[in-house]
Design a protein that fits this description.
The chain has 76 residues and is an all-alpha fold. It has 3 helices and no strands.
Amino acid sequence: MQKKLTFTVDKRVYEGLHAVVGRRRISHFIESLVRPYVVGKDLDIAYQQMAREEAREAEALDWAEATLGDIADEAR
């Protein structure tokens, strides 16, 4: 979920952002700079948890597909 944030910068900074980063990319640029300072380790932990979940989901899918094969054999 995104939230809108309004802040004030020096005119030269504003012009530099437009010149270097480009219009419509400034928010992403600033977020990428700020994120490590405000999100930090929590984000890393969340990604690690998601990676573990993917492995578990893959295991569950394999199990489910094998079970479907067993059920198909019983129906014959």
